[in-house]
Amino acid sequence: MPSPHTLPRRFRPWLVAAVSVPILALAAGRGAPASERTGTDPVIIRIDNFTFGPETLTVAPGTTVTWVNGDDIPHTVVAQNKLFRSRTLDTDDRYSFTFEAPGEYAYFCSLHPHMTGTVVVRRPTN
Amino acid sequence: MQDPESHHPPGTLSRRGALECMTWAGTGLLWSLGGGLPRAVGLTRALAAEEPPAPFTFLQISDSHVGFNKPANPDASGTLREAVAMIRQLPEKPAFIIHTGDISHLSKEQEFDDADQILRDTGVPLFFVPGEHDLLDDDQGRSYRDRFGRGTRGAGWYSFDREGVHFIGLVNVVDLKAGGLGNLGTDQLAWLERDVAGLSASTPVVVFAHIPLWTVYPEWGWGTQDGARVLACLRRFGSVTVLNGHIHQIIQKVEGNVSFHTARSTAFPQPAPGTASSPGPMKVPAGELRKVLGITRLNLIHGREPLAIIDTPLAG
């Protein structure tokens, strides 16, 4: 039988940052060089009301995307091509993945599979 | 007893005696649903000339979510304890209890342990199937199977017989596909076909699984992708009762010889399909919570009455 375990407590300052997510996400996708964005600005996808928001997010290669669960119910973030898979995210838990290669990454919640989203990784045009 | 105020078509009632009564009783709303009279069972017993048998009663309990502590119910263990206390006070001790999943909220050992201790106090045997909340450990269900699913097959499916009724526990919360609903998978369906192959069509069948086996509301994932294959498999049986959880509210339907029923949670209610922005936990006014939590009793009185399903809230 597996030994008892507890999930580590996670810090919460990101919740404030999360409010401005869509704008930041757009900024990251609109052509600012990825090197200037990654590591400084959090690119966040909110999970609220059993929905990934934004449902489709466009970022530059090298961007780290962070999912934050705002629901009272746990969710997961699982790539359909199995590239990434979060552990179970309870309320306020976060999961990050860095997208290196251009492409479209479809993902879903393995607990509530009607919840789907896509991260589009594209090099800035200018 | 038939309620003249019932909104169900009277033709349905007289033809099958399906919806037996729907009445206010005391402080709570009591639903009683006949699941299709297994006539061949009555015949068998008549031929055997047995004494009038005591009613065979079992219970369904669902969605305990032990460990849940959010505003919709800060003490899910407490309300489970209340449900257990209610079960202990029943005038007729049920033969056993079926738990239709989401025993825990996050599959933590402590949550499973607490649930186990509380449910043990009922003093009757328990049968389980997992909900998606019970398979969240690193080994994706090992904890559940070690504790609640010993002797089961695959992800935790099995069958057993009691009092001439064939019970089938199915798992539809594993290997869910993006954009899809609950999922049983080909291995489990193949097993099911073999499991019922030798049964006479007069055998009453009770099927239980966490997510509804019929499509309640696909927009919220409330259904099972390959659930129709289960029903196809059971079509030849004279009486089939399908018991589910997951949606934390009572929804029932009769289709041919099949009665579908979902149970209340003992932890928190969820909104009716499409009435909220999401299926998440619903916070109800203080004092109202126990009216929307509850347990389900099922009575099979051989040869006399249809299988009756009675939902009882924790408080009126």
UniProtKB/TrEMBL annotation, chain A:
<protein>
    <submittedName>
        <fullName>Amicyanin</fullName>
    </submittedName>
</protein>
<feature type="signal peptide">
    <location>
        <begin position="1"/>
        <end position="27"/>
    </location>
</feature>
<dbReference type="InterPro" id="IPR028096">
    <property type="entry name" value="EfeO_Cupredoxin"/>
</dbReference>
<dbReference type="InterPro" id="IPR008972">
    <property type="entry name" value="Cupredoxin"/>
</dbReference>
<dbReference type="Pfam" id="PF13473">
    <property type="entry name" value="Cupredoxin_1"/>
</dbReference>
<dbReference type="InterPro" id="IPR052721">
    <property type="entry name" value="ET_Amicyanin"/>
</dbReference>
<keyword id="KW-0732">Signal</keyword>
<feature type="domain" description="EfeO-type cupredoxin-like">
    <location>
        <begin position="34"/>
        <end position="121"/>
    </location>
</feature>
<dbReference type="InterPro" id="IPR035668">
    <property type="entry name" value="Amicyanin"/>
</dbReference>
UniProtKB/TrEMBL annotation, chain B:
<protein>
    <submittedName>
        <fullName>Metallophosphoesterase</fullName>
    </submittedName>
</protein>
<dbReference type="InterPro" id="IPR051918">
    <property type="entry name" value="STPP_CPPED1"/>
</dbReference>
<feature type="domain" description="Calcineurin-like phosphoesterase">
    <location>
        <begin position="57"/>
        <end position="249"/>
    </location>
</feature>
<dbReference type="Pfam" id="PF00149">
    <property type="entry name" value="Metallophos"/>
</dbReference>
<dbReference type="InterPro" id="IPR029052">
    <property type="entry name" value="Metallo-depent_PP-like"/>
</dbReference>
<dbReference type="GO" id="GO:0016787">
    <property type="term" value="F:hydrolase activity"/>
</dbReference>
<dbReference type="InterPro" id="IPR006311">
    <property type="entry name" value="TAT_signal"/>
</dbReference>
<dbReference type="InterPro" id="IPR004843">
    <property type="entry name" value="Calcineurin-like_PHP"/>
</dbReference>
